[in-house]
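Blinded run. Sample ID left blank on purpose so nobody reads anything into the name before looking at the predicted structure. Input follows.
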Amino acid sequence: MRDLSAVFKAYDIRGLVGEQLDVDVVRDIGAAFARLVHPAPAVVIGHDMRSSSPGLASAFATGVIQQGVGVITIGLASTDMLYYASGSLDLPGAMFTASHNPAAYNGIKLCRAGAAPVGQDTGLAEIRAEVEREEPNREGVAPGTLDSRDLLADYAAHLRTLVDLSGSRPLKIVVDAGNGMGGHTVPEVFKGLPIEIVPMYFELDGTFPNHEANPLDPKNIVDLQRKVREVGADAGVAFDGDADRCFVVDERGEPVPPSAITALVAVRELAKDPGGTVIHNLITSKSVPEIVAEHGGKPVRTRVGHSFIKAEMATTGAIFGGEHSAHYYFRDFWRADTGMLAALHVLAALGEQHEPLSELTAEYTRYASSGEINSTVDDQAARLAAVRESFGSKENTRVDELDGLTVELADGSWFNLRASNTEPLLRLNVEAADNASVAKLRDEVLAIVRA
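Blinded prediction complete.
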């Protein structure tokens, strides 16, 4: 019996190609997924630029077809382009990508029709169990059909219907695609807009020769920051490997926190839909719920992770959701995450007024933060309990355990400490009025965590 515990994650499937994921395993995953979504007429499949992606996508398609379910391939795609395909065609989908992971990795993001997420509780556990048991194919079933479509232009046109940039002043924007799928989608999305794109690393290359395609790591946006200052650009945008996340720097090359982007986009969405609900995870800045409320919206706090965000959006009818990790979710995009649409919102906001981006985003950045700090620990539960005991007894301190441990102190500063699902790590995020207060609280928590 196979053991696939290492590759079936909370929200997707991911592992080393050849060692943990090979064509036989992936074919069987395709067959199990087809059984899960039956009687869907077809599954839409896209893949990124990694050298292993076309072969794995083909093996998955074989497994689907053997179950009597059709396949529509869309070829090279960003993850949000696959979500567009799933939503617009109303079909379940599979995206082959390992996002920002190194070249030796690959993976599969699965969704049901309408881009509805498939996670551990909504199908992944069932698929894993079937593949580990190596369940046989259904006998006597006529194979499904194989079709292919090019949806890039349709995807780009749809995004442009959701954000109006026709009245924008001319902008010069540096885009770092990190040799990932942004190099494929950005030229089509920005075609005809009053925006001059200065491209960086648009060549599709799954070996990531220039830097890791993870813009949340500061070392990976150094080139973008330098180029923005060098060419006098109005802003810079970096995408991760599968281009579903975007990270923004202002005209000075300074990073704009994802929480500020969440607040900015939320205000724009609330202008279209007054009184709407906006989802934010518990690690986003508290400026987000403050600003949402100030603009007449209803902020709703949720756990970290796209399946929780999307579920809460469905329950509440939320118009928008944002995470600290630069994932942005839109009701008008099937509640799926799309960094490209968030980038268009930022550029539209910038282009419809004459202040630089640094001044535009300053009003959405009210507090100082630590960023995520990881600590390797022997016993996650024991360290969490020690922190809870230390802080829980303090006067006027609020504690909740919605996701890990969140502690808010009397002066308004707060921190969240969460255990990693996949590694022996505790992840700490701290926010306070200024950098000195952040450093003081950070060091106090880490002294307990790392004792």
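Unblinding after everyone has recorded impressions. The longest helix spans residues 23-37.
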